[in-house]
UniProtKB/TrEMBL annotation:
Keywords: Iron, Iron-sulfur, Metal-binding, Oxidoreductase. Pfam families: EKR, Fer4_7, POR. Residues 218-247, 274-304 form the 4Fe-4S ferredoxin-type domain. The keyword Metal-binding applies. One of its GO terms (biological process) is response to oxidative stress. This is 4Fe-4S ferredoxin-type domain-containing protein. GO terms for molecular function: iron-sulfur cluster binding; metal ion binding; oxidoreductase activity, acting on the aldehyde or oxo group of donors. It comes from the Bacteria.
Length: 496
């Protein structure tokens, strides 16, 4: 019995492996009377052909009503036991509440009571959807017996909508993204032949922009009349989905009708226009931008210069606005004081749309570093969160500017990125006069001796780094130490 959010149905074939007569639970913002109209045709056919029983609940609405924010785990757990029949309704509720007391009791009675209330409210909002047949007539025979306490709600007959599951990446994506990364995104990576993968293990950068996860139920909407253009919302965005630009007013001639702008409040750009734009399909809905916004509407309590609104109604409109926004020229930062937040956030981020958790606290700093230094930046990444959201398949958030300049990123196994990074620095310092005799021949070296050389090399590089731990060494210091290391390597090689 899969429990799925509606937005995932647009991307994945979640009913591919469901058994005939199975049960499908959907978390949807649309109620029982209209949810059928928002299902892709593939899902409708699967529900009908496999005689699947279909239940729906707006779990996020229930969570918000009892003060639990976006935490829906207790609600979905209650739905599972109510539908599955593993325990009776009374037994399941008793056991769930006992688990709540055990799990959240130390956090206070208020938290426990909110979860209790969520359990009680769940069954009142859980409904079984009667699936229409091909002609749009209610087909009760496919449903079977309703679960106790869960009402099968009738709805008007509908005609199948004319939309299908969208492709994993847009049609305008590069060929490699469509043919190789696309199947991986769709969960079909096992179907790819080995010959389709890069033979040297090198993958293109800047591919995260094609993924379009659409996981946010709500996205930020900009109010240009209130905005003071401070750039704080752009600064804290973990996924670089909120951006700002200043540009020539004449460029608005070809802008979409819904594209918003305001007079730029920058002393460096007195006659320019300003736009704050959100990437609707890449936002994760964390809401940090709203928390960071310092502006409050005095005439409307709770309203700020940026506010969270439902994503689906705005998606297509803001998708077109985002595409136009990206075509606007980047700011010339030659004489710009990037020490100021509002100025630094005019710079293009070269780390975008990563797979980091919603509301991540690390990625805003990484994004800022790429804005300031990304076009001449080398990253030696240790294994950890930053290697997972920064370099995992199928997509890469590190990207390049219009000139093809961007961070050079690589990950070193486990926690030896200090040695790995030192090697990168040494190579960069000596890129023009690297001694040719350093690359000595290894043709006749046995596996055993090769291992001895590698072990010695690793330990000696660590020694160099530890000796320099009190401060970043100068280029001369690094070169002299690496020269001594080179001599030691020769001695190791001669003794093999």
């Amino acid at each position: 019995m899969p429990a799925i959010s509606l937005l995932f149905l647009e991307r994945f074939d979640v009913l591919k492996y469901s058994k005939p007569g199975g049960v499908f639970l959907l978390d949807s913002m649309y109620d029982v009377g209209e949810v059928w109209n928002f299902l892709p045709q593939e899902v409708q056919h699967a529900l009908r052909d496999k005689h699947i029983r279909f239940y729906v609940i707006d779990a996020h609405k229930v969570a918000a009503s009892v003060g639990m924010g976006g935490r829906i785990n207790t609600i979905m757990q209650t739905c599972f036991f109510a539908i599955s029949g593993i325990l009776s309704r009374e037994q399941s509720i008793e056991q769930i509440k006992r688990s709540i007391q055990k799990t959240y009791g130390k956090r206070g009675e208020a938290v426990v009571q909110k979860n209790y209330q969520a359990v009680d409210e769940t069954l009142a909002h859980l409904h079984e959807v009667l699936i229409p047949d091909e002609e749009g007539v209610q087909s009760v025979a496919l449903i079977g017996t309703a679960v106790a306490g869960v009402q099968a709600q009738r709805k008007p007959a509908v005609v199948l909508p004319m939309f299908t599951r969208r492709p994993p990446v847009p049609a305008e994506a590069p060929d490699f993204v469509r043919s190789v990364l696309g199947p991986m995104i769709a969960g079909e990576g096992d179907s790819l032949p080995v010959s389709a993968l890069p033979c040297d293990g090198t993958y293109p950068v800047g591919t995260a922009c094609w993924e379009k996860r659409n996981i946010a139920l709500e996205i930020p909407a900009w109010d240009p009349d209130l905005c003071i253009q401070c750039g704080k919302c752009v600064m804290v965005c973990p996924h670089a989905v909120i951006r700002m630009k200043v540009y020539d007013p004449q460029l608005l001639a070809d802008a979409p009708e819904t594209f918003q702008s305001a007079e730029a409040r920058f002393k460096e750009f007195p006659t320019m226009k300003y736009t704050l734009q959100v990437a609707p399909e890449d936002c994760t809905g964390c809401g940090l931008c709203v928390e960071a916004c310092p502006v409050k509407d005095k005439s409307q309590v709770g309203h700020k210069a940026i506010n969270m609104v439902a994503q689906p109604p705005l998606r297509e409109r803001e998708k077109a606005n985002w595409a136009y926004f990206l075509k606007l020229p980047e700011v010339d930062a030659t004489d710009l004081n990037v020490a100021a937040i509002k100025n630094s956030q005019l710079l293009q981020p070269l780390f975008e749309f990563s797979g980091a958790c919603s509301g991540c606290g690390e990625t805003p700093y990484i994004k800022l570093v790429t804005q300031l230094f990304g076009d001449h930046m080398i990253v030696a990444n240790a294994t950890g969160c930053s290697s997972i959201y920064g370099g995992n398949l199928p997509t890469t958030p590190w990207t390049a500017n219009s000139e093809g300049h961007g961070p050079a990123w690589s990950n070193s196994l486990f926690e030896d990125n200090a040695e790995f990074g030192l090697g990168c620095v040494w190579h960069w310092i000596n890129r023009e006069n690297m001694p040719l005799n350093f690359c000595f021949s290894m043709k006749s070296v046995s596996v055993r001796n090769w291992c001895r050389i590698c072990c010695t090399l690793t330990s000696q590089i660590r020694w160099v780094f530890m000796r320099s731990a009190n401060g970043w060494p100068s280029s001369d210091n690094v070169c002299s130490k690496m020269d001594r290391l080179q001599q030691r390597m020769r001695r190791v090689y001669s003794n093999c």
